[in-house]
């Protein structure tokens, strides 16, 4: 049995060695043959190519001067190269100039009549090569060479050498296999005999003698190690007993830990109960805040209606007594009292988080710069004001007007804490609130924030006062010195703005209030300011919808005094009837909170359906959730809060009318171009637009209002222009490339960089760029130097817009 196994192993060993040797030699031989063939081909091509290049250089003059004898003499020198069978020189037009054929070659191998494309051709045992004859960069002719290409001789010689190498390698492999077979088989036979003796005598103390240090020796060592492990079996059993004893001890420890855990169960239950009590307290506080908010909202609504009646009639009375100075003073005192009442109602709403916010991307650094004079006047000359703003400050999403109120209230609180003498520091910086901080603070979401810190050098607050500082009506001031709503209003505003507010204070060391507002990645937007601008009226028809008849009468009198024609309705149902009855109504001026089946948002929708061009302006002292969601006004909603002044109402109405007419004008212009008619101005405009498509302009349009931007892009596209429309100057600067646009059309007022600043920046890149400035406030002043800016008044007129654009480019 052992001899048959030995013969089987020997045969396999021999076959494996021979097969491996044959494969290795065969593969390497083929690779060497392929390399030799490639090397031969490359060398022949390089040699013949070099010969062709030399002939091209020496034949240039003969070809240009039609010197055939000289060219034939040049080719005749190829007789010294027996491997070149034929050659020729062709003119630039491909006609044969001179040719050469080796004397020992038949005439059938003469050069072709016309040259082929530059390169080489392998045709059996012949190699054809064509090279251009150049004079500078101009081709004046072609050189042709035909040479022998004895590849078959080269291959035959390589195969013979390969066969000889294979035979020698196999003979050497056979001898090596025989020697290795003997070297491996003998140790295996010795180990086999030792195993037979071990099985027969059952003596596990025996060891196999080790004769080699190779893999066979390793096998012998492994076998001897196995015998040693069997001898150590009893010792391992004893070790197992020890391990079992150790496991029993570990179980005892586990049981002891379980007993200790049970003993601490009461403590853990107490801690959990404390957490539940804290959560219940937070829920109770939240429910209390909700109840206060509902109460405050109802009170604020009625309170603001009363203030609106008082304030409106005071203003109307003031207009009727312009010459009575004493009456004007008393009226001014009364108006100041109503403003204080309105401020108190606003603070109550802010604390209860019911304030209608209009958040926008805002640069807090700009807000503080704009407030600097106001703060210094409010704090007095004995309070030093210092402002520190970190470079690269992010924008934040916040209502800037309400934020100014918060900063002013906190600054006044700081002034009072410093007794009118000290230092107030306003600090702005970027901040990151991580998950760990957010987990330890109520209603805080981890993320990127803009931090506003307001620090004073006042008396500071003890911990119990800090704990109650945000409670409404809580104050440490004497009676009559404050309402106790400043900090609570700031707390409600910050929370409604998805931010975080924290007080740091020590008695005798001053106070720091840090406000964190969420970061915004959008550019700052320009806000409409009702306190600035000319107070003008109009002749439009305004429908006033107000359930409080006194407030309604006051609003009607204000609008009538401004020149408007006024319709009135007591609720939404009556307003729908008025809208259906009249063919023209220009504005719906409606209270947000009204009784009846038709609510104010539904009324606005019905008004838009019946009168598509109508403007909608809401008013309220408390908006509830009709047009406010998440504490923020719905997009596109215009609101004026009660109580409002006649001047503010006049400016707000003109602002709303201007926006509505701008969008409506673009829609009408777009429709006039898109729908050609058979007669009238619209048909002519459509025909003209079709004719102008062939010479359309490349325009970069910058408009921040999305409706205006979309309609303006559509309108200009229908006129045949190629339009790239963006929403900010920063986007326009990124999209601009010199030479890519014929004109820039930009609004004056843009978020972030203004339209004039953008025009100046792009003119520096491309001085000849045509610039059209869209403005609702008259002509735009021309810059110093360069061609002036062209003005496009709002609302846009299609004829003037197209003529202005095309005229500007044609003049350039």
From TrEMBL:
<dbReference type="InterPro" id="IPR003661">
    <property type="entry name" value="HisK_dim/P_dom"/>
</dbReference>
<dbReference type="InterPro" id="IPR003594">
    <property type="entry name" value="HATPase_dom"/>
</dbReference>
<dbReference type="Pfam" id="PF02518">
    <property type="entry name" value="HATPase_c"/>
</dbReference>
<dbReference type="GO" id="GO:0000155">
    <property type="term" value="F:phosphorelay sensor kinase activity"/>
</dbReference>
<feature type="domain" description="Histidine kinase">
    <location>
        <begin position="298"/>
        <end position="521"/>
    </location>
</feature>
<dbReference type="GO" id="GO:0016020">
    <property type="term" value="C:membrane"/>
</dbReference>
<dbReference type="InterPro" id="IPR005467">
    <property type="entry name" value="His_kinase_dom"/>
</dbReference>
<dbReference type="Pfam" id="PF00072">
    <property type="entry name" value="Response_reg"/>
</dbReference>
<dbReference type="Pfam" id="PF00512">
    <property type="entry name" value="HisKA"/>
</dbReference>
<feature type="transmembrane region" description="Helical">
    <location>
        <begin position="161"/>
        <end position="184"/>
    </location>
</feature>
<feature type="modified residue" description="4-aspartylphosphate">
    <location>
        <position position="747"/>
    </location>
</feature>
<dbReference type="InterPro" id="IPR003660">
    <property type="entry name" value="HAMP_dom"/>
</dbReference>
<protein>
    <recommendedName>
        <fullName>histidine kinase</fullName>
        <ecNumber>2.7.13.3</ecNumber>
    </recommendedName>
</protein>
<feature type="domain" description="Response regulatory">
    <location>
        <begin position="698"/>
        <end position="809"/>
    </location>
</feature>
<dbReference type="InterPro" id="IPR001789">
    <property type="entry name" value="Sig_transdc_resp-reg_receiver"/>
</dbReference>
<dbReference type="Pfam" id="PF17152">
    <property type="entry name" value="CHASE8"/>
</dbReference>
<keyword id="KW-0472">Membrane</keyword>
<dbReference type="InterPro" id="IPR033417">
    <property type="entry name" value="CHASE8"/>
</dbReference>
<feature type="domain" description="HAMP">
    <location>
        <begin position="182"/>
        <end position="235"/>
    </location>
</feature>
<dbReference type="InterPro" id="IPR011006">
    <property type="entry name" value="CheY-like_superfamily"/>
</dbReference>
<feature type="transmembrane region" description="Helical">
    <location>
        <begin position="12"/>
        <end position="35"/>
    </location>
</feature>
<keyword id="KW-1133">Transmembrane helix</keyword>
<dbReference type="InterPro" id="IPR036097">
    <property type="entry name" value="HisK_dim/P_sf"/>
</dbReference>
<dbReference type="InterPro" id="IPR004358">
    <property type="entry name" value="Sig_transdc_His_kin-like_C"/>
</dbReference>
<dbReference type="Pfam" id="PF00672">
    <property type="entry name" value="HAMP"/>
</dbReference>
<keyword id="KW-0812">Transmembrane</keyword>
<keyword id="KW-0597">Phosphoprotein</keyword>
<dbReference type="InterPro" id="IPR036890">
    <property type="entry name" value="HATPase_C_sf"/>
</dbReference>
<keyword id="KW-0418">Kinase</keyword>
<keyword id="KW-0808">Transferase</keyword>
<feature type="modified residue" description="4-aspartylphosphate">
    <location>
        <position position="591"/>
    </location>
</feature>
<feature type="domain" description="Response regulatory">
    <location>
        <begin position="541"/>
        <end position="657"/>
    </location>
</feature>
């Amino acid at each position: 049995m052992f001899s048959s196994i030995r013969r089987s192993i020997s045969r396999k060993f021999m076959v494996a060695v021979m097969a491996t040797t044959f494969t290795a030699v065969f593969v390497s031989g083929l690779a060497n043959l392929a390399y030799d063939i490639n090397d031969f081909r490359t060398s022949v091509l390089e040699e013949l190519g070099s010969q062709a290049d030399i002939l091209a250089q020496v034949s240039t003059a003969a070809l240009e001067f039609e010197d055939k004898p000289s060219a034939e003499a040049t080719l005749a020198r190829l007789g010294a190269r027996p491997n070149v069978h034929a050659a020729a020189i062709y003119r630039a037009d491909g006609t044969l100039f001179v040719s050469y054929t080796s004397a020992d070659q038949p005439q059938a191998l003469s050069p072709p009549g016309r040259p082929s494309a530059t390169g080489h051709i392998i045709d059996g045992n012949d190699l054809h090569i064509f090279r251009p004859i150049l004079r500078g960069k101009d081709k004046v002719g072609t050189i042709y060479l035909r040479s022998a290409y004895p590849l078959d001789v080269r291959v035959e010689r390589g195969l013979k050498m390969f066969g000889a190498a294979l035979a020698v390698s196999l003979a050497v492999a056979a001898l090596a296999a025989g020697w290795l077979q003997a070297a491996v088989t003998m140790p295996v036979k010795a180990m086999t005999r030792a195993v037979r003796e071990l099985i027969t005598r059952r003596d596990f103390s025996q060891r196999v003698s080790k004769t080699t240090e190779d893999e066979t020796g390793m096998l012998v060592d492994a076998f001897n190690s196995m015998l040693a492990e069997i001898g150590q079996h009893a010792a391992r059993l004893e070790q197992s007993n020890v391990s079992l004893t150790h496991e029993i001890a570990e179980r005892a420890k586990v049981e002891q830990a379980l007993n200790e855990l049970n003993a601490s169960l009461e403590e853990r239950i107490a801690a959990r109960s404390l957490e539940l009590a804290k959560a219940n307290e937070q829920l109770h506080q939240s429910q209390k805040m909700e109840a206060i908010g509902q109460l405050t909202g109802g009170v604020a609504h009625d309170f603001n209606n009363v203030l609106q009646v008082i304030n409106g009639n005071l203003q109307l009375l003031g207009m009727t007594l312009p010459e009575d100075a004493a009456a004007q003073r008393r009226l001014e005192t009364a108006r100041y009292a109503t403003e204080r009442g309105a401020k108190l109602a606003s603070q109550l709403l802010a604390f209860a988080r019911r304030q209608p916010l209009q958040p926008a991307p805002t640069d807090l650094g700009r807000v503080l710069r704009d407030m600097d004079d106001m703060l210094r006047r409010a704090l007095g000359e004995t309070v030093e004001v210092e402002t520190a703003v970190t470079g690269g400050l992010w924008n934040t999403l916040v209502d800037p007007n309400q934020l100014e109120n918060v900063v002013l209230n906190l600054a006044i609180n700081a002034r009072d804490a410093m007794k009118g003498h000290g230092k107030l520091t306003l600090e702005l910086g970027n901040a990151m609130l991580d998950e760990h901080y957010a987990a330890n603070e109520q209603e805080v979401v981890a993320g990127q924030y803009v931090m506003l810190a307001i620090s004073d050098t006042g008396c500071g607050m003890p911990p119990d006062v800090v704990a109650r500082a945000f409670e409404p009506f809580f104050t440490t001031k004497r009676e009559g010195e404050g309402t106790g709503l400043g900090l609570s209003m700031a707390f409600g505003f910050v929370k409604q703005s998805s931010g975080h507010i924290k007080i740091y204070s020590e008695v005798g060391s001053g106070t720091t209030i840090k406000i964190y507002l969420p970061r915004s990645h959008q550019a700052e937007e320009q806000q409409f300011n009702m306190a600035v601008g000319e107070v003008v009226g109009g002749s439009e028809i305004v429908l006033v919808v107000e359930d409080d008849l006194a407030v309604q009468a006051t609003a009607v009198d204000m609008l009538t005094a401004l020149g408007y024609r006024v319709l009135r309705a007591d609720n939404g149902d009556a307003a729908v009837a008025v809208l259906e009855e009249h063919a023209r109504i220009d504005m719906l001026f409606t209270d947000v909170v009204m009784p009846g089946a038709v609510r104010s948002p539904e009324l606005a929708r019905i008004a838009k359906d019946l009168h598509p061009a109508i403007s909608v302006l809401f008013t309220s002292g408390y908006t509830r959730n009709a047009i406010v969601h998440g504490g923020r006004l719905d997009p596109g909603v215009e609101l004026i809060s009660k109580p409002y002044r006649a001047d503010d109402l006049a400016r707000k109405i003109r602002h709303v009318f201007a926006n509505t007419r701008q969008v409506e004008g673009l829609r009408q212009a777009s429709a006039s171009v898109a729908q050609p008619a058979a007669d009238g101005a619209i048909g002519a405009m459509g025909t003209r637009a079709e004719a102008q498509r062939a010479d359309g302009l490349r325009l970069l349009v910058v408009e921040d209002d999305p409706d205006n931007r979309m309609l303006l892009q559509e309108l200009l596209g229908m006129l045949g222009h190629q339009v790239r429309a963006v929403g900010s100057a920063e986007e326009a600067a990124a999209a601009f490339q010199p030479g890519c646009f014929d004109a820039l059309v930009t609004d004056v007022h843009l978020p972030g960089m203004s339209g004039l600043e953008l025009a100046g920046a792009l003119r520096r890149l491309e001085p000849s760029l045509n610039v059209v400035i869209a403005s609702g406030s008259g002509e735009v002043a021309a810059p110093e130097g360069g061609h002036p800016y062209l003005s496009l008044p709002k609302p846009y007129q299609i004829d003037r817009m197209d003529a202005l654009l095309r005229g500007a480019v044609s003049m350039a």
